[in-house]
Design the sequence.
């Protein structure tokens, strides 16, 4: 998503040139290029698919909508397996229209996970519940803190459901460091994503994630706590940013890699 | 602030006509009309000043800036006393430019409160620390949850420092209900403010607070938990909303009063 202006073949080529060996993919561009074609292309390019984004949106009340959501998430699991990644990231969904019941919405996510967890496990895919910043609680994700995400995950086996830690969503929370340790100890730290927090936020607050180093996130501290929690998996950079998308994708990828190395070095 | 288009004399008149007996004031319009003139006007209109907004912005690192901030907060306390309100609301301040140290910023707030608390107590003014939504953590307020605000308040006597509960900032947090009870039990629930959460958020995310009933906040549930915590003080409606500000102020005040009654009745 950081360089969504690059079609998948160009992305693979640019990664190869820059020495990037893993890539997190989103379902829409994969579907556009073709699932099997994408799987073949990344395999031949020697790229590991680190995660697939995203399943989720599991908060509907309407029974037909719920069945559709579960079916769609099963397809997402299948796609992850085909792409050779072991992790599907879930953005759980916001409040259904007209509802003000956050607790009920969170319980419906748990209901759906009880169906999806075994399905995913049988296919070698872990479900990573991603807490999104509280500013998305109404319209995208009622799971707003790492505490909530872990409380949810721990209702299921650790080889089915865990969490995705994204600095953009969690940087402000003084409880997050302890919860990262909890996630690690429970064997549920499935994914680690980076974006910086910059202000002012744009209208709609979706596409203002900052380039690494431009904002308020203390990346060295985050790297240290994620490492201390035993995480040795890939580190993804996920920037939703209109300005970055308007630029040359290869240039943005090179810049992002440079920033990535700089924030890792900063301590 | 809900009807900031109304100059203070018109505000007082409109409140009188609608049977509104209390008003929360902000320092800027008070200063513009004159502190003593405002105090006289609201007294003669039979209006109670429920709170004064706002003190705070206590996170500066530079010693001169810190002294200036404390002096300014002392003036805010004096203004509150002159206006006859017993509560000054504090918006604590964001990260200083270039800093990524949330913990340090929170500690500097505590330092400042240790100076301001006794000063305010001697003048009959309570300091209400207001946690702001986490989306303001970088640029306005590093105190993002009611838990953090209470942890901070409880380092000081309960007749000096407490909290302001605002539904707009706290509605998403599953820990907030228990913390409201904690605030009540500790005698630190000093103010209660209402605004609804509506999306999409506007650019800068400051002036999109929803009219009561238009959004995701479950007001009856909030009223019930604040009442259960023993709160019997005024209930303020604080809407920062460009659309409401563009309309006739008396019409907005009447509509807000109607909505206020409707959301109180909803259960």
Sequence:
């Amino acid at each position: 998503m950081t360089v969504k202006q690059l079609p998948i073949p160009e992305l693979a080529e640019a990664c190869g040139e820059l020495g990037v060996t893993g890539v997190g993919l989103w379902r829409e561009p994969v579907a556009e290029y073709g699932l099997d074609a994408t799987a073949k292309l990344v395999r031949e390019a020697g790229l590991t698919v680190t995660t697939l984004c995203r399943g989720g949106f599991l908060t509907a009340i309407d029974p037909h909508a719920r069945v559709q959501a579960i079916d769609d998430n099963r397809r997402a699991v299948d796609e992850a397996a085909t792409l050779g990644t072991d992790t599907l990231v879930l953005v759980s969904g916001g409040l259904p229209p007209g509802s003000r019941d956050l607790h009920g919405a969170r319980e419906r996510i748990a209901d759906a996970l009880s169906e999806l967890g075994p399905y995913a496990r049988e296919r070698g895919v872990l479900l990573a519940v991603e807490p999104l910043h509280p500013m998305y609680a109404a319209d995208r994700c009622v799971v707003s803190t790492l505490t909530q995400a872990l409380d949810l995950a721990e209702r299921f086996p650790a080889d089915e459901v865990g969490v995705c830690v994204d600095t953009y969503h969690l940087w402000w929370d003084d409880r997050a460091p302890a919860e990262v340790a909890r996630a690690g100890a429970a064997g549920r730290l499935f994914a680690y994503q980076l974006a910086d927090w910059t202000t002012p936020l744009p209208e709609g607050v979706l596409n203002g994630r900052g380039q690494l180093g431009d904002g308020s996130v203390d990346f060295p501290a985050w790297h240290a706590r994620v490492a201390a929690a035993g995480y040795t998996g890939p580190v993804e950079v996920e920037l939703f940013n209109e300005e970055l998308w308007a630029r040359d994708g290869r240039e943005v990828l090179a810049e992002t890699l440079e920033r990535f190395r700089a924030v890792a070095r900063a301590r």
Notes: The two ends of chain A are 28 Å apart (CA to CA). Residues 8-265 of chain A form a domain with the TIM Barrel fold (CATH 3.20.20.150).
